[in-house]
Structures are given as C-alpha cells and as structure tokens.
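Render this sequence as a predicted structure.
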Amino acid sequence: GRAACGVVGSIAGLFTVMWLAAIIPALVSGLVPPELAETGLVSNPVHVLDLALVLPAMLVTAVLARRGAQAAELLIAPWLVFAALMGASIIAAMFLAAAPPLPIVILTLVTGVSAVTAVLTLRSSGQAHARIAAVNDRHAR
C-alpha cells in the first residue's frame, strides 16, 4: 500500500541524492573521485545505470502505484525485494572493503526497511488474492 510506495520512492530519492553528492563535487572540482582513479574508469557504471534507469523506474512505479495504477502496484514488491537484495550485497562489499561504519549502518537500515516492507507487502498481496479467490468460489456455486 501507501507505506510500500513511500519506501520505494524514498529509496529512489535517497540514492539519487547520494550519487549526485558524489558526482557533482567531482564535476565542479575537475578531480577524479578516488574510487574511479583506482579502477581507471571514466564514470561509475553503478551511478550511470542507477541514475539513467533504476532510480527513475523506481520513482515512477512508486508514484503510479500510489495513484492506483494496477500495473505499477504489481511492481512495488519486486522493487522492494530488489532493494533488499542489492542492499545486502553492497553491505557485504562494504565490509570487505573496510568501509567506514556510518554508511554501513545507514545502508543496513535501508536494507532492513526494504526487506520488512517487501515481506509485509507480499503477505498482504497473498491475503488479498486468497479473499478474491474465496469470493469467486462462492459466486461459482
């Protein structure tokens, strides 16, 4: 429902701000960010994919689902599962890279909220389908 749409929209907004906070200072200063200097890449492929595809799609889905678009409502739970799984993989990578604790804590909270909201959304979706099936069975008799 509304909470799931809010979580998906918030995740899209949070990551957009985080990625732009890394990109804009590098553009203004003209300096290559340390994570890119180490890889030799000219841009961070995660930033490119997220800002071009993933985050806009999450935000559009959240807005449309909030407005009652059924197709978008069907995508909210998968986006939450995606966010939880992606967050868990990023947390693991951060631990391996000995990242500072604050980003790990923040990402752990976002991942936990995504996972819990995904479970609640999927559970309520399953219950709604069961109620519809029961009504259909009664009408069929």
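Summary. The first helix runs from residue 2 to 29. The mean pLDDT is 88.
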